[in-house]
Amino acid sequence: MNTYNMVKQRFIKKWINTLHMLDSSIEHPLNVTERKNAIRLSSDLAIAAARSGSTVWSRALISRSGNKTTNKPMARRILKKARNRMKNRCRTLRRNGNFTAKVGVRKRTELLKSLVPGGELIDDKDYLIRETLDYIVYLRAQVDVMRTVAAVDLVTGNLTNDRRNK
Amino acid sequence: MDLTQGFRARSGVVGPVAGLESLNFSDEFRHLVTTMPPETTGGSFTALLEMPVTQAMELLHFPDSSSSQARTVTSGDISPTTLHPFGALTFPSNSLLLDRAARFSVIATEQNGNFSGETANSLPSNPGANLDRVKAEPAETDSMVENQNQSYSSGKRKEREKKVKSSTKKNKSSVESDKLPYVHVRARRGQATDNHSLAERARREKINARMKLLQELVPGCDKIQGTALVLDEIINHVQTLQRQVEMLSMRLAAVNPRIDFNLDSILASEVSIN
Fold this sequence. Notes:
The complex is a heterodimer. Chain A is mostly helical. Helix content of chain A is 76%, strand content 0%.
């Protein structure tokens, strides 16, 4: 049972959905930067939806992306599903400050908190590391899939160019 | 077209036949490549270098090839052959490690409604074998925080063996969970047997175990001693991954005029990922 492949597959399915939704609700034409933002947004929503569990980073990512897309009904549909899950599951986060951290470690944990979405809300170092681990797996899946898609795009782009030229 | 036939031949290459087929294929390719440049002087990237087309083909089978390469390459090594046309850094995507991490990263909270409560963790002790699971100490620390009177009773609970939630039923958010053995927390000779120090020791052990797993996941991290440096590597890794996502989305945006262009490409890549 290859679970990393399953992660990638889930991400791909969600990404197709979010791309489609986002595209149907955005006015064309767009310049490159807006397109890039839309692609980035859709893929972030896709990894968060693929995780779709009770991790802090996925919920924080969804709510962070929600601020970027303002009045798009499609995005609202995606977020509504995620928000219901948040209501059911979100109780108080673990708070346990009974550990002494050395100075270097503390600075670095602050930095890590700023990197991982929703990390600022986590006080416990143990939980932060667990969240980071989960987040890294899904980030890797995102990068792998996007790289493969870009490669396939490159090849098919050349194919269509050749057909047109010939 | 000749190119598509070449592709089909390439995708059929397996094992010992690889030599012959690749030979024919490269001849075909050289022929194609030499006839291409005059047509595509406009700026097709493949015309600039001869290699990228074959390497783009490699990338079509990226997951398979890289995982087989990763097995032969030691961790922390950047495999040189996965040269991307745009020179992006590729990590040795050891699928085995990522599977372990994917299994590890599942946080199942379906036992109770309490999100912060019983979360099922799994710590790999040896590759692919039994996963040790540490007891849901959160539940006990939660109760400790809420009422101080119970702190001593919860400490006594920790002195005994920590029970394990053997959640065999699969939930939607949990990808997989195995039956796990007990994790004993014993006070060694000469160490304090306080409730609080026991709890602290247990937490430290949990953190260290997870740091070890993170070390394995982040390439090049196992040689480092000390929490601060490991955290450095992890931060570096997360930043690199996020930057890569940014760059890749920029590339995807630049290639095509619409943003739902790559649905076919995604489906094609999904096939190759299997």
